[in-house]
Design brief:
The chain has four helices and five strands. With 149 residues, it is α+β, with helices and mostly antiparallel strands. The strands form two sheets. It has a three-stranded antiparallel β-sheet, with helices on one face. Strands 1-2 form a two-stranded antiparallel sheet.
Length: 149
Amino acid sequence: MADKSSESIHITRDLAIPTSEIRFQFSRSGGPGGQNVNRRQTRVELLFDLQNSPSLSKEQRARLLKRLANKIDRAGILHVAAHSRRSQLRNRQKATKRFVQLLRRGLQIPRRRLPTQPSQRSIQQRLAKKRRRSEAKRLRQHIRADDGE
């Protein structure tokens, strides 16, 4: 059997977080489920010290701190909770999956938008629409008596 401390969670090709950097907290989950909810600690909260993680570069840490700010507490710890399943194991898997998705999305560098020129057709359509609108407004005007003579 492999040593548990050597296992890691793969985020991207270049980034893997060792499981030793992740902690889990368990508590009772609310909602439906009968006695299972009242007796078992099935709610799972994954805690990851984003501020002090040696697995992240300075750039990655800065990007994640900015983009995941609403899920990070003052100490720099990322909180991911899962409580929709009746089993602690399944909630743990769900929290881990959500953690991976959050980090992947947080690390993505948004593409810069390349400004484009409007097509010739779109320019013509815009001008035709302006002409139609102008004509409709012109037809609403009152006719002056001196214009007809």
